[in-house]
UniProtKB/TrEMBL annotation:
Pfam families named among the record's database cross-references: ADH_N, ADH_zinc_N
Keyword check for Oxidoreductase: yes
Protein name: NADPH:quinone reductase
Keyword Oxidoreductase: yes
PANTHER family, A to Z: QUINONE OXIDOREDUCTASE PIG3-RELATED, ZINC-CONTAINING ALCOHOL DEHYDROGENASE
Amino acid sequence: MKSWFLKNSIQGRHFQLRDVPSPEPKSDEILIQVQAAALNRGEFLNKTVSADETDYQACGIECAGVVIKVGENVKQLRLGDRVMGRSRAAFSEKAILLAGNALLLPSGLSWETAACASITYQTAFDMLWPGGSLQKNEWLLIAGISSGVGLAALQLGKLIGARVIGTSRSLQKLQLLKKHDLDYGLILPGESLAAQVLEITNGKGVDLIINNIGASIFAECVRMLAYKGRLATVGSVDGEKNAQFDSSLQHTKRLKFFGVSSKMRGKNETFELVNKFKMDVLPAIANGKIKPIIDEIYKFDELPKAVDRMVSNLHFGKIIIKI
Ligand SMILES: NC(=O)c1ccc[n+]([C@@H]2O[C@H](COP(=O)([O-])OP(=O)(O)OC[C@H]3O[C@@H](n4cnc5c(N)ncnc54)[C@H](OP(=O)(O)O)[C@@H]3O)[C@@H](O)[C@H]2O)c1
């Protein structure tokens, strides 16, 4: 089968489309014939900061397709099932998923939509529900709102009934976001973010912040949180790892900081999140209340072009590879 391999280096990203043997699912895994896969920023972040080089590795972490083989301990899925979810080597003709990460496609959902309805939404869910305990009418600020995770957080925040402020470096993207129920859009960098947020919220500050950007805005986030505010760090596109902030604000405002990443999380913890997501969010995707926003759909052999679009920040919504 054909499979894309990626090497990240200081010079940039190098891709190879290789012919490799079809993988064999382990006892708790399934093998699917991939129909569509989605791009996620994390795996394309360039290694210019650490200067580490990786070897070529099969790439792609999210896709949708038809089950063609199941491991001997998999009871909940059968051959022919249409599934979506976190996977290994998703930019391939066939890919492996842990059965516990696979969700059955709601009827009527296209392959392209299904391919991008898992990781960003589960990440946003993790921050808004279990991590951030966001409540109706609370203020949610999403830094880097035009990102895949940011758009998913906007839609889920609105599903809860929160009021949402978003930041972007692009006025054009903020204007597009007005059509997606964004309450306030702020340009970053621009005037003091905290001052603008305090004005919008009548001096209260925001209850929950989703920081997609990184350490460069951490201190500003601490300044604009309300009493008992929560701050979720989901990633870093700014390349900054260190932040200096006024810790007395954390103390007096009783702030909570937490991170969201799948790197150290065990299988069972992930399955628990996927199950909660299935109950709390999947019905809204099935009935069309939540509609993943698709930016562009590329052909299988166009992966490098698709990645260029993402790393140039030209996209608005998810970039899909049709296999
Ligand atoms: N994808 C996931 O499910 C997932 C899961 C866990 C963690 N993460 C992390 O979350 C972050 C977002 O991932 P994604 O896949 O959603 O990203 P994405 O769709 O590629 O969006 C990233 C956005 O960040 C903004 N941006 C880029 N460089 C920036 C900079 N130097 N300063 C300020 N803003 C910048 C751009 O928005 P504007 O052009 O509008 O400014 C860009 O569209 C990444 O750090 C990723 O590793 C993602």
